[in-house]
Amino acid sequence: MGAAIDVSFDCVGFNKTMSTALNATRAGGKVCLVGMGHNEMTVPLTPAAAREVDVIGVFRYKNTWPLCLEFLRSGKIDVKPLITHRFGFSQKEVEEAFETSARGGNAIKVMFNL
């Protein structure tokens, strides 16, 4: 990606996305795993441990789904304006999405259309 990544967040919880975060993070960096997709996962911890990458788990959204879904259903919150950019899933589009997100600016939420 052209630069060392100090901190990565995996918010998907799949083997592939966790592996990408672990492999992309620089030696001595941090990876935050937000939630888990399954009870047991297969991820490359040994190479990450050898590079002294810290892995932090966050699982604080327990029991928040009903309230969030009610807010969405009732129209109390509208999340559509938060999705500022949409990209396809080709290599070129994925790179453009990451560059857009890294630049910041008016990018709030960058989404992939699969």
Automatic annotation (TrEMBL):
It holds the Pfam family ADH_zinc_N. Residues 3-72 form the Alcohol dehydrogenase-like C-terminal domain. GO terms for molecular function: metal ion binding; oxidoreductase activity. Its cofactor is Zn(2+). Keywords: Metal-binding, Oxidoreductase, Zinc. The keyword Metal-binding applies. InterPro entries: ADH-like_C, NAD(P)-bd_dom_sf. The keyword Oxidoreductase applies. PANTHER family: SORBITOL DEHYDROGENASE. Belongs to the zinc-containing alcohol dehydrogenase family. This is Alcohol dehydrogenase-like C-terminal domain-containing protein. It comes from Punica granatum. The lineage of its organism: Eukaryota, Viridiplantae, Streptophyta, Embryophyta, Tracheophyta.
